[in-house]
Amino acid sequence: MSLDNNLDTLYRQVIMDHYKNPRNRGEITDGSLTVNMNNPTCGDRIQLQLKVEGGNVSDAKFSGEGCSISLSSASMMTQAVKGLPIEKALSLSEQFSKLVQGNDIDDEDLDFGDIEALQGVSKFPARIKCATLAWKALEKGLNEEKEETTE
């Protein structure tokens, strides 16, 4: 078995683990902002809730339904952004978008962790929207939060 094959198998296992055992699935009950997004092409729908305190994402949870790529991506994203400053979370989202489109990453200091498992999505252009749905919700929510705090 080749190294690429072993890596593909490992990445599939990571994706399926996040799909079957999602992290941070649920609701934030106090002081959160909520973003609803859907992908009408395939029916994926995500509700992302974020709690931002002192310029940092202190909590992130999601609910919704969709394919394994969409929901595992939401699970990975909520894990990755907890505790990050808004700007760092937005940067991670931007770099993730590049990753799943098969482009080079600008910021080598970012720790993708399990998120790297989604880099193979670039081979399936129709699935890129599935992988980025929760991330687009993150961007929308954090950009709205930034606007509110600067007014």
Describe it.
The protein has one domain (3-146): Sufe protein. Chain: A (Alpha-Beta Complex). It is built from four helices and three strands; from the N terminus they run H-E-E-E-H-H-H. Strand 2 (44-53) and strand 3 (56-65) form a beta hairpin. The chain has a three-stranded antiparallel sheet with strand order 1-2-3, with helices on one face. 46% of the residues lie in helices and 18% in strands. Pfam families: NifU_N. This is Nitrogen fixation NifU-like protein. Residues 11-130 form the NIF system FeS cluster assembly NifU N-terminal domain.
SSE layout:
Blueprint: H1 3-20, E1 33-39, E2 44-53, E3 56-65, H2 68-81, H3 86-100, H4 128-150
Antiparallel strand pairs: 1-2, 2-3
Helix pairs in contact: 1-2, 2-4, 3-4
Short description:
With 151 residues, the protein is an alpha+beta fold. Helices cover 46% and strands 18% of the residues.
Considering the chains and any ligands shown, give keywords for the structure.
single chain, 151 residues, alpha+beta, Sufe protein. Chain: A, 3 strands, 46% helix, NIF_FeS_clus_asmbl_NifU_N, Nitrogen fixation NifU-like protein
Q: Please identify, by name, the CATH architecture.
A: Alpha-Beta Complex
Outline the low-pLDDT stretches. Answer: none
Residue share in helix = 40-55%
Number of strands: 3
- Give the overall average pLDDT: 91
Note the run of SSEs as H and E. HEEEHHH
- Write down the overall geometry: globular
Structural class: alpha+beta
Largest sheet: 3 strands, antiparallel
- CATH class, please? Alpha Beta
Cα distance spanning the termini = 57 Å
In which order are the strands of the major sheet placed?
1-2-3
Number of helices: 4
Number of domains: 1
And the CATH topology?
Answer: Sufe protein. Chain: A
Q: What proportion strand?
A: 15-25%
Radius of gyration: 15 Å
